[in-house]
Amino acid sequence: MSSATNGILGLVPPGVVTGDDLVTLLRYARDNNFAIPAVNCTSSTTVNAVLEAAKECRSPVMIQFSNGGCTFLAGKGISNKDQKAGIAGAVAGAYHVRAMAKYYGVPVVLHSDHCAKKLLPWFEGMIQADEEYFKLHGEPLYSSHMLDLSEEPMEENVAICKRYLKRMAKINCLLEMELGITGGEEDGVDNTSVDNASLYTQPEEIWYVYKELSSISHRFTIAASFGNVHGVYRPGNVKLEPNILANAQKYIREKIGCPEEKPVFFVFHGGSGSSKSEIKEAIRNGVVKMNIDTDTQWAYWDGVRTFVAKNHDYMQAQIGNPKGADKPNKKFYDPRKWLRNAEKSLSARVKEAFIDLETVGRLGENVSLKITSKL
Ligand SMILES: [Zn+2]
User: Is 113 a residue of the active site?
Assistant: First the structure.
């Protein structure tokens, strides 16, 4: 395949990718055994740090905003009644990514993270924004959105996913859904006390979802549980079983008589703390996206922490430091100084993810940047 030698930029353009380009990107990842890191962002500075890492690693990347991330982007000083701040923040974050991504020369998947049933008004608002954007530009504002109805009975989970996927199919937007139970706690869904057996999705369940969603659109991904846990916990509590994904691929392949070895695009949630070999096995079994949040939150903070520790005596007052009582400290407390250290630290952690998920250099040879304005 010629695209394999040219790399991703021979297939899709830099900037936010949607629709067919997004599916092309996911297929390329699946067929070449790598997964794209999806990093949760909460501000323009976290977005930029992630884009910077992707540029340096010549890798595609996913930027995702959670509901909490969106209300933070909107500013905590306004009301979130009826999810108004969540929706406005989602739009603001998307516009920042859209404005900047192409200048970094990397394809970016713009995604919204976990949306439980009680947050559906947020989802509804984002889809409306996608539909409005589609009218103007022929593509949705976001590449994809995630619905997490895994707390609901499976039939209801799938029925609601189908309802939204019908709408999303019209604007070429992709749906990520969650099946089974991911342990731990994420955005208000607490599964810390769930018994172990339900942490593993059955092939029949994945087939049911695949069959139902495929009847509407091929643009969907599945976050199935194979022992993964949200957040960082003591290792060894739950055993990761990536072979569950391989079994499901085989089961579905036989059901549909599909020529593709891995018909399902899987997403890996709760991967913090997983071993590199477990991650690689999950990728071999069709994981094309892996969420990263907890570790990058720490990395961002760690950048501030180390900056303050190193420059402590220069950060206690606006004027006055070990060099003299009248010496100004502006070049230490200026947010651009300590936040830049946070960005560098976050960027370094994201680079590790690119290495673990084997995305480094996947863009192929340097292709000159062609930037088109589409806001
Ligand atoms: Zn999840």
Answer: yes
Q: Is pLDDT above 80 for 197?
A: no
**How large is the greatest C-alpha to C-alpha distance in the chain, in angstroms?**
78
Q: How far is the CA of 373 from the centre of ligand 1 (A)?
A: 34
Chain centroid to CA 284: how far? Answer: 19
Q: Residue 16: enclosing H or E segment and its boundaries?
A: strand 15-16
pTM of the model: 0.91
- Range in 33-47, 238-252, 307-321 the model is least confident about: 238-252
Which domains are assigned to the chain? 13-370 (3.20.20.70)
Tokens of residue 225, six digits: 């549980």
Q: From the candidates 20, 21, 113, 326, which is the catalytic residue?
A: 113
Q: From ligand 1's centre to the CA of 143, what distance in Å?
A: 18
Q: What is the pLDDT of residue 231?
A: 60
The 8-class DSSP code of residue 88 comes to H
Rg (CA), the chain: 21
pLDDT classification of 198: cutoffs 50, 70, 90: low
4 CA → ligand 1 middle, Å: 31
Query: What pLDDT, on a 0 to 100 scale, did the predictor assign at position 195?
Result: 53
Burial of 274 (0-12, 13-18, 19+ CB in 10 A): buried
DSSP 127-192: HHHHHHHHHHHSS-SSSEEEE--TTS-HHHHHHHHHHHHHHHHHTT-EEEEEES--EEEETTEEET
Q: Are 59 and 360 in contact (CB under 8 A)?
A: yes
Predicted local confidence at residue 81, as pLDDT: 97
Ligand 1 centroid from CA 5, angstroms: 34
Distance 115 CA to ligand 1 centre (A): 9
3-state SS assignment for residue 267 = strand
Residue 4 binned pLDDT confidence (cut-offs 50, 70, 90): very low
Chain position carrying tokens 């930037």: 371
